[in-house]
Amino acid sequence: MSAQASSSPLVRLVGVEKKLGRQKVLRGVDLEIREGEKMVIIGRSGGGKSVLLKHILGLMQPEAGEVWFRNHNLAQLNEEQMVPLRKETGMLFQNGALFDSLTVGENVAFPLREKGGIKEEEIEAEVARALKIVDLPRQESKWPSELSGGMRKRVALARAAIAHPALMLYDEPTSGLDPIVSDSINKLMIRLGEELNMTSVIVTHDMVSAREVGDRIAMLHEGRIYCVDEPKAVLESQDPIVKRFVNGISDASDAIF
Q: Do the Cβ atoms of 62 and 75 come closer than 8 Å?
């Protein structure tokens, strides 16, 4: 576990249930995310991992159960009350979600300009610092279309982290990247967590990333948290459900004809 992680939870999900249409996606999720830790969430595609992230962000409300951020039950807050809590949360989307009409510097500065009350020279200094942290110094004037996939992810990471959120959420941060670029993103996630003392929640199918980045791994299976443990214990588990997933082994019920 990282040095910053403590035993007190920053985020707590208690019996969270959610249906999308007729499908019950979450069936009673119980999970505590400790302050300062890097929690990796794994599970089958379409199994509810992104839905879980949206509940932590307060973008979705559970039909049953509770989602707590520190001492706030998100279900009891209105949109106005959610604003300061959302400012404590950063999100790295799977595709980066950069604004193509803005330069790299303008993209990274966007959260600070939205926040308001910050002098322009301070914003420029923070942008330069954020880009340096993600190993893209002096790239402010470039356009997103001029960047590789890995560079776009790093710019998006700088934008998500520039306001120093207490909680950072990552949705498939290494998806579509080659192993070397993926390794650089993994190292950046670790560095950001340590330098900015952030709590991180990482949704991924990348077992190399899960092992390298996570303090703990939680497996979401059939709408519930099936197991939570340190990476070695999960990735070397002999439980047949866990073992099949982490090793990418299908069974007869997975066959597609």
A: yes
* DSSP secondary structure of 135-159: T-TT-TT--GGGS-HHHHHHHHHHH
DSSP state of 205: S
Give me the amino acid identity at 119: K
Gap between the Cα atoms of 158 and 253, Å rounded: 42
At 10-29, the pLDDT tens digits run 999 999 999 998 899 999 99
Query: Could you tell me which residue, 3 or 109, shows the higher pLDDT?
Result: 109
- Cβ neighbourhood burial of 85 (10 Å; 0-12, 13-18, 19+): middle
Distance of CA 83 to the CA centre of its chain: 19
**Distances 39 to 15, 200, 204, 226 between C-alpha atoms, Å:** 19, 6, 11, 15
Q: Model-level pTM greater than 0.90?
A: no
